[in-house]
Every structure is written in C-alpha cells, then in structure tokens.
Amino acid sequence: MTQLSEQERKSQMAEMKSFDEQMPCVGIFWYDQEEHSFFGVCKQELTPKMVEEAAEKGLPFINYPHLHRQVWAKEYFQAQAKREETKFKGDYTQIPRGRVAWNINKFIVLVGRWAESIQEELTRLIEQEFSLPYFEFVYDEHWDLGHGWSGDM
User: Fold this and answer.
1) Bridge-partner residues for 103, per DSSP?
2) DSSP type of residue 65
3) Is 110 helix (H, G, I), strand (E, B) or coil?
4) CB hemisphere CA count around 34 (13 angstroms)
C-alpha cells in the first residue's frame, strides 16, 4: 500500500474541498436597492436528512430560527459599540427583506410586493446566495415595506 506524504495529502484535500458545494439553505436577507445586492444575510444549510426528520415529526415547514428584528437589533448594537457605520439603523421594516424556507416539497421565498418589479434580479441573487435548485415566490403583506410583527413599530 502506498502512502501519501503530508504535502501530497494536504494538496489532495485542498483539491477535494474545491468540489464541496454548499447545500441549499434557509435564511433571511435584506435587499439594498442602491447596490442591487443582499446584506444582513443569515442562513443555515438544509440537508435531506433534516427534511426527512421534520416530515417524520409532522413538521412540513422548516424555517431559519431567527427573526429579522432580532438580527437587526444585534447588528445595530454591535455597530454602536464599535462606533462603526452600519446599514442596520432606523426601522428594519422600511428596508426590503425576505425569508427563505422549506415548505413540504419546495423552497419558498417570502417577500412583499416590493419584489415584483425586480423578480428576475432577485431570483438570480437568491439562487446564488442560498444555493437553491428551485423555489417559488410567496407574496405576503407582512413582508411589504412598513409591515412587521404587531407591536414592533
């Protein structure tokens, strides 16, 4: 049996790592209208095993476990403590935002009507950022600008 040298092993592992693709993810994001990009993205990979386990428990909906308002507040206070400029200021509901989730047999992207006019661009960004093979937009008033959980405003 032939053994690889340490350098050969590291080289081979680095090459194999280049084949490692991100699994599809659930998560949240904000959309920067001026830069045509996402910011504040928080996500977690979703594996087939997670989907199967959720289905066995009768939970067809898999979601990212944090709310936009929680992430916004954390980022705001961290920037304040470091005296840094931040996009996380003002009312988090006034910035276009969305959520990627798994619902039964498909990924869904929950957004407000703000997304209708840029759906093609948004599709490309979501596919790239969340590694989604397919998904469906779901429009809901909650995700419209100025809307959030009751008591937030």
Assistant:
1) 61, 106
2) S
3) strand
4) 2
The tens digit of pLDDT for each residue in 12-38 reads 776 666 556 789 999 999 999 999 999
pTM of the predicted model, to two decimals?
Answer: 0.82
CA distance 115 to 137: 9
DSSP class per residue in 73-102: HHHHHHHHHHT---S--S-GGGS-EEEEEE
Place of tokens 């961290």: 78
CA 140, chain centre distance (Å)? 18
User: Do the beta carbons of residue 109 and residue 98 sit within 8 Å?
Assistant: yes
Q: What is the C-alpha to C-alpha distance for residues 29 and 118, in angstroms, rounded to an integer?
A: 15
Q: What is the DSSP letter of 43?
A: E
Contacts of 58 (CB under 8 A, 6+ apart): none
Q: What is the pLDDT of residues 53-102, one digit of tens each?
A: 998 999 889 999 999 999 999 999 999 999 999 999 999 999 999 999 99
Query: E strands, the chain, where?
Result: 25-32, 37-45, 61-62, 97-103, 106-111, 136-139
Rounded Cα–Cα distance for residues 51 and 56 (Å): 9
